[in-house]
Amino acid sequence: MLTEKFATEEYSAVEAHSSVKKMNLLLCAVFLPVCFVEIGIYVLNWDYANIFATIFKTTFLLEIFVLAAGMFLFIVLAMLIKAALLAAFSEGKLASVKFKIIKELQKPHCCLTEPIKVRQYRLCLLVYVLFAMVAPYIIALVLGDFIFVVASILCAFFASGEVLFLVSLLWCRGDCYVLDFEGILLYRIYEKI
Length: 193
Fold this sequence. Notes:
This protein has helices at about 5-10, 20-45, 50-55, 60-90, 120-145, 145-170, and strands at about 10-15, 95-100, 105-110, 115, 175-180, 185-190. By secondary structure, it is of the alpha+beta class. It has one domain (about 5-190). The chain is elongated. About 30% of the residues are buried.
């Protein structure tokens, strides 16, 4: 569905945008509680000695390198899953999906060049958040190594923008359309009048 259709038909457009400074503060408001909760749950399941044993291992730097590569693969895989879902819901399929790194926030992002229904976009965001934020932490809890918790916290940082976007879409009707621009700083909701 092309954007021009929404300009000619009976749709009202509502834009939401933010400055980079405000967006970074909002991301911290999402990200910091997630960090405290993840570390708190880890400490309840495991003990403090495990944290220090992880940090003072002789292979600590090698583990950081391996986990950075694994974290990168987790984020890329989560982004590809989100892109596949976005392509499935859009009329232009894969041609309407666009990948970008938002340089102001230092985050990868994929968006559509055409609007899709809000309920479909919520599903795409939810799958991304579950795969990029929750799955690495579950792996960290099962394995019990604190370095995996650190990696899951960094994955949560990359997913925190999508959490904000998901929360902001909760108050929109599901039959409205959303157009996410090339960053998480701006999106447009189309409602039928």
